[in-house]
Sequence to fold (70 residues):
Amino acid sequence: MADAKTTKAEPAVSAEFPLPLEEFCARLSASDRRVELITAFARGEKALGFVKDTESAYRKRFAAFIKTPA
Fold:
């Protein structure tokens, strides 16, 4: 039987680190040329208080932002 001490799951360490919003938008603009859309996303993020987050979280919110009606 396995020892109880060896079966505990260790917390997963994320390889991502928080980025400033401006850095994420600059990186995004290298692959996505919709400048107005990126600018609108950045303004919305600032208004909501998301000025530093992981890239995956920004990408998830950007994908949702694209799908919202005008």
Observations:
- The chain has a mean pLDDT of 89.
- The first strand starts at residue 19 and ends at 20.
